[in-house]
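To: structure subgroup
Subject: Chain for Friday's discussion

All,

I'm putting the inputs and outputs inline so they're searchable in the archive.
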Amino acid sequence: MKGKATKFGDNVDTDMIIAARYLVTTDAAEMAAHAFEDVRPGWPKKISVGDILVAGNNFGCGSSREHAPIAIKAAGVSCVVAASFARIFYRNAFNIGLPVLESAEASRDIAEGDVVEIDASTGVITDKTKGKTYQSKPIPPFMQELVKAGGLMAYLAKTHK
């Protein structure tokens, strides 16, 4: 995975990611169009497919809705790197096929617009702009299978025929 970094701070909650007024839809593209609308208007139009979202501590806190990682993934983000994640967001991200990695150092050092490359199987995060690498905990093989399949439901459909 490789893309430009979009940087967010600490305690980004699920209401900031996708406001509750948009939870009436199940259309991922519609959710993506409103991602971060109240905190960073126009954000979906400013990113490219494959970009990396980088955040601080407790990313995805708040309600347990899956809409938040769905909106991020549908917007084109290929991976989220944060210092830490709310546990339910972390699990929901893998359930919908969005890889996430924890690295406090990468979260602190990577700047908005830096080009970032990620190897999820080794956990290596490379800031190509700064020429610096960070080691995060690799994504376990089973979780990589979930991401590769496109999420838990796609994985189950593929493996339980």
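Points worth raising on Friday:
The first helix runs from residue 14 to 17.
The longest strand covers residues 2-7.

D.
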